[in-house]
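Slide 14.
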Amino acid sequence: MRLLRSAPFFATLLAALALGCAAPMGPVLVAWPEVRPEAVVLRDVRILDVRTGRLGGRSDVRLEGDRIAAIAKPGGVELAGAVVVEGGGASLLPGLVDMHGHIATPTGPAWEFTSPPTPELNLRAYVYAGVTTVFDPGDGSGDAFDRRKRVGSGALIGPQIFTVGPILTAPSSHPIAMIEELLPGWLAWIVARGVAIPLEDDAAARAVVEELAEEGADGIKIVVDRIPLESRRLSLERARAVVEAGRAQGLRTVAHIGTTEDALDAGRAGVALWVHGVYKERIPDERIAELAAYGIPMVTTSEVFDSYGRIRFGPLERTRLERETVPKEKLDSFHPIPEAFDAGPLEGWIVLMQETREVRLDNVRRLHDAGVTILTGSDVQSNVFPGASLHRELHTLVQAGLTPAEALRAATLHPAQWISQEDDPPFGVIGVGKRADLILVEGDPTSDVGVLEEIRAVILAGVPVDRVPVGK
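Slide 15: predicted structure.
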C-alpha cells in the first residue's frame, strides 16, 4: 500500500474528499414502485419460523402499511385493495440483519481511489440482497444521522439503519494507526478526523459520548485491537470510562476486538457486544467458558478477514449476488494486483489472516457450543460488498459448524433481539403486528443457506421493491 503515497493517489483522494456524496448514482438495483400500495397480499408462501428453524405449510400473508396485518391458510385473507404477489410455494423469511454493515465505505481495490464512497448505492445493494436492517458500528461521514432519518421517512430507499456514528479509539490506534502509516502527516490528520475520534483521557471520552448521544447515536463503538500488529491499543481503564459514560446516556457500547485478551478486557469494561470476534489466534480452551460467562453476543465478520487473506491467490469466484449488484469491471479490477503493490505495515496482518482461517472457524464453533450468541456481520470495505457479503458470511457460519437454521437466526431473530432489547422483537421474525421487512426465496433455506440468493421478492416496510440487477 506504499503505492498509495503516489501523486495520483493524493489527487484522487482529495477529489473524493471535495466531492463528498456527489458521486455518480451507479446501478439502480432497487427502487420504490411508482405507486406504493396501501396493502399487499403474499399468496401461497411457506413461512419460516426462525425460532424453531421450521418451514410452515402454505399460507397467505396480508401487509398493511409497514406491518403484517394477517396470516391465514390459503384463501383466508382479504384481497380487497391489495397488490397480490404470487408466492408459488416459495419460502418467506424475515429480512436479513447485518450487524456490522458500513454504509459510507468504498468497496474498490485498495490501490484505486478513483471515486468517493457511494452510500446511496450501498443502501440499494443491501436491499437488493434482502438485507433490510443494518447496524453500522462506524460511520464518520458526518451524514450518518441525517441519512438514517431520510431512510426512515422513505425519502431514501434503504434498510432501516442503526448507527453509532464515528468510532472511538486510542491515539495512534486502529483505524488511525493505519491511516498514519499510509498517508503523510497533514493528509492523515484530515482523513483520520473523518473516520475515528482519538481519546486522550477520560474527560475527553465523556465529552465525546455526550455529544454523540445528543446527535442521536444508537450506541457507542470502541476499538480494542491492534492494526497494524505493533500499534497502540485502547486501555481497559479508558474502555471502562467510555462504557460508563455511555450508560449514563442510556447507550450501550460495542467493542472491536482481535485477540482473547482484547475480548476479556472489553468484557471487563462492560461492553454489550463483541465485534469481529477473536480472529487473530485460537482461543485457549480454558478461556471459552470465561468468555461465555459474560453473556455478551459476538458478531462474526469472517468474510472480511478471508477477503484479505486470499488477496494474493488469484481471482475470486464471484457469487450470484455479487454479479448482480457490482459492475463486472469493478469485480475484475481486483486482479491482477499491480506489481508495485506493497502492503507495507499491513503485510504481517495480511499474512496472519491467511494463516488463521481455520482458527477463526474453530473459535466460532467452540464459542457457539458454549452458549455465546453469534450474530452475522459483513464489515463492508474493499472487495467486501454490501448485501452480497452477508450471504458469504452465512455460508462461513455453516462451515464453522452452525446448522443453516442457526445461521439464519444469527441474521434475523438474534440481531433483532439485541437491537430492540426485546425477546419478542418488532422485526427479525414473522408474525402479525411485526414490521413487514421480508424476503421471498426459492427452496428451503433451512437445508441450504445458498438458496437465500434465489430471491423472488424483497418487501421493505410493507412495499415490494423493484429489483434491477446490474446491466439491466
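Speaker note: The longest helix spans residues 202-215.
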